[in-house]
Specification:
InterPro entries: 5'-Nucleotdase_C, 5'-Nucleotdase_C_sf, 5'-Nucleotdase_CS, 5_nucleotidase/apyrase, Calcineurin-like_PHP, CpdB_N, Metallo-depent_PP-like, TAT_signal. By secondary structure, the protein is an alpha/beta fold. The chain is built from 15 helices and 38 strands.
């Protein structure tokens, strides 16, 4: 009887040797030539080239491809054979991106600043991220046209059935083995994007493209790619890592992709996290220390240029071709945090800065333009635990805008209008400086962009009072369940729950009972049908009528199904506005001239005994900005530079 040992089985058996460097593969009777190949990844750059925070209008050592470029240079100096890839989300995500899209524009022959910077660094290939589609297909085409590197994506299809860009490609490189001999290496590259782009950017994409499931697309196109007999296959998967059973259509499908035969390395992204790392511990099939998904080496290099992903492969030549005999995966940061202080590990590369300096300077002028004045400070330090002015101003602007449109539509003009908005900059993976903090006085475009980060467009949905209640129940999933009988520390906010899914709905009043379990799980599935966290939900002072119809102002992401909120699957949309939510805020401030965005306190927590030690992490700067009515006491240092507060929810 012959036992067949696959390459993946052999890699799994090498766990004990991982600490020594490259994880060994199987012992072979006769070794062939050995070759070391280093694969490098950037992901989710979001037009961050300069180490600069345009929102705060100050340098920032935690971001910027110009900083990552120094890591790239060092990584190349350490290895004879290197290839650099990008994993998507290039052209949107910072005021520099907005300046290009909304002010300067792109036409044939123009070079987008992120592309100019990447052209300087000799990238092999990129894939399409979901944010590539935020400004439409024409803008995307102009942006990629001058890239010196191709893009691949296998699961975005044109109406005739061909892919929008090539699904895969073969890259041939001359490499040097450990004995100094040269070889031709063929690397296959295939790319993927979350299929949810059809919801998130429906206005730009409907009728122009369709998407397919990531795993299905891999199974469709990998045989074509493998027919070219590549020595190695790299998947550029702009999709994150999540556990659970595969059902198809997953947004974060990298773990499922790893089970498709024929892929040697997976480069992931989209989640703005780091892999290998503790963010993904405890997920079946994931080795968060070695950096594998079902045994396949994988990496996720943070976001905004914060890290460089490095996958070192030890390849061995056999009669059947080159085989992976060992590997090592790491994500190298551009900075470290010591005692709440950012300590840069590298300096920005001058040649990369030079490629975008003109557009950088123009962006500074653009974001500094004043549009109005605020009488009150606008900050988000407590946006996750109290009604908040940074969310309030968004709601007020959306309400003003949608009410104006609805008044012109006979079928909608008599419906009451509510507004749903969420905090965007509220710490989390962005760190203890990742908060909105606008002082009283002039309000500039950069301030509005700081309040509303994304280029979403306004939508209004028609839902029932019952759906409003369930919408809020889903939103309340951000809170961990608090045991009122415990006296040991209980953190209130679930850090895995995205802050942009914590919708506050203005126009109604309610309380949130965090002693109850969440009705919905992390994926929006109803898991506790008997639980009710939303209490005393009222409209105009009366208990809400579950059958009453409402218009709710929101954005295209939420209305199209983003976050899996009840009442939001695209079918309830009744107003599709052409304006971005950010532009609506600017127009609202221009119209009002002077704003006073104080929170109206339409939601609060149901009482929890004062003996319960409920805690919350926020910025150290929050000590000077505790909102009226919030009982919060500093309780020592939290991790990663945050400050811990104890919350008294007894009244």
């Amino acid at each position: 009887m012959t036992t067949r040992i696959t390459r993946r089985d052999a890699l799994k058996t090498g766990a004990a040797a991982a600490a020594l460097g490259l994880v060994p593969g199987p012992l072979l009777a006769q070794e062939g030539p050995r070759l070391k190949l280093r694969l490098l990844e950037t992901t989710d750059l979001h037009v961050n080239v300069f180490p600069y925070d345009y929102y705060r209008d100050k340098p920032d050592d935690t971001v910027g491809l110009a900083k990552t470029a120094a890591l790239i240079k060092a990584a190349r100096a350490e290895a004879k054979n290197t290839l650099l890839f990008d994993n998507g989300d290039l052209i949107q995500g910072s005021p520099l991106g907005d300046y290009m899209a909304y002010k300067k524009g792109m036409k044939a022959g123009d070079v987008h600043p992120i592309v100019a910077a990447m052209n300087e660094l000799d990238y092999v290939c990129t894939t399409l991220g979901n944010h590539e589609f935020n400004y439409g297909l024409s803008y995307l085409g102009f942006s990629l046209a001058t890239a010196k590197f191709p893009a691949v994506c296998a699961n975005v299809l044109k109406p005739e059935g061909t892919t929008l860009v090539r699904p895969w490609l073969i890259v041939e490189r001359e490499v040097t083995d450990e004995a100094g001999a040269t070889h031709k290496l063929k690397i296959g590259v295939i790319g993927f994007v979350p299929p949810q782009i059809m919801q998130w950017d429906k206005a730009h994409l409907e009728g122009r493209v369709t998407t397919t499931d990531i795993v299905d697309a891999a199974r469709r196109y990998l045989p074509e790619l493998k027919a070219q007999r590549p020595d190695l296959v790299v998947a550029l998967c702009h999709s994150g890592i999540a556990g659970g059973e595969r059902k198809g259509g997953e947004e974060n499908a990298a773990l499922h992709l790893a089970q498709v035969p024929g892929i040697d390395v997976i480069m992931t992204g989209h989640q703005h996290r780091v892999f290998p790392g503790k963010d993904f511990e405890g997920i079946p099939g994931v080795d968060a220390r070695r950096g594998t998904l079902h045994g396949v080496p994988a990496v996720m290099a943070g976001f905004w240029g914060s890290h460089l992903g490095v996958v070192d492969l030890d390849l061995e030549k056999t009669a059947a071709g080159w085989k992976v005999a060992g590997f090592k995966v790491e994500a190298r940061p551009i900075y470290e945090r010591k005692d709440r202080t950012i300590v840069p590990r590298v300096e920005a590369e001058a040649a990369v800065l030079a490629t975008v300096r003109g557009d950088h300077e123009a962006t500074l002028g653009y974001v500094r333009q004043p549009v109005g004045e605020t009488k009150a400070p606008i900050n988000s330090y407590f946006a996750l635990v109290a009604d908040d002015p940074s969310v309030q101003i968004v709601s007020q602007a959306q309400l003003w805008y949608v009410s104006t449109i609805a008044a012109t539509m006979p079928e909608l003009k008599d419906l009451p209008v509510l507004s749903a908005a969420a905090p965007f900059k509220s710490g989390g993976r962005g760190g203890p400086d990742y908060y909105t903090d606008i002082k009283p006085g002039p309000v500039a475009i950069k301030d509005v962009a700081d309040i509303y980060l994304y280029p979403n467009t306004v939508r209004a949905v028609k839902v029932t009072g019952a759906e409003v209640r369930e919408w809020l129940e889903r939103s309340a999933g951000i809170f961990r369940r608090i045991d009122p009988g415990k006296t040991e520390e209980q953190p209130l906010v679930d850090p895995a729950f995205p802050a942009y899914n914590f919708d506050v709905i203005d126009g109604v009043s309610y309380r949130i009972d965090v002693t109850q379990p969440s009705r919905y799980d992390a994926d929006g599935r109803l898991v506790a049908p008997e639980a009710r966290r939303i209490l005393d939900l009222t409209f105009r002072g009366q208990p809400i009528d579950d059958r009453q119809l409402f218009l709710v102002a929101t954005n295209n992401y939420r209305a199209g199904g983003g976050g899996h909120f009840p009442g939001n699957d695209g079918r309830t949309i009744v107003i599709e506005a052409p304006d971005t939510n950010r532009d609506v805020i600017v127009r609202y401030i221009v119209e009002q001239k002077v704003i006073n965005p104080s929170a109206d306190g339409n939601w609060r927590f149901a009482p929890v005994p004062a003996s319960a030690n409920v805690t919350f992490l926020t910025s150290p700067n929050a000590t000077r900005a505790i909102p009226a009515g919030v009982k919060a006491t500093p309780a020592g240092d939290g991790p990663d530079g945050f400050l811990k507060f104890r919350l008294d929810l007894s009244a």
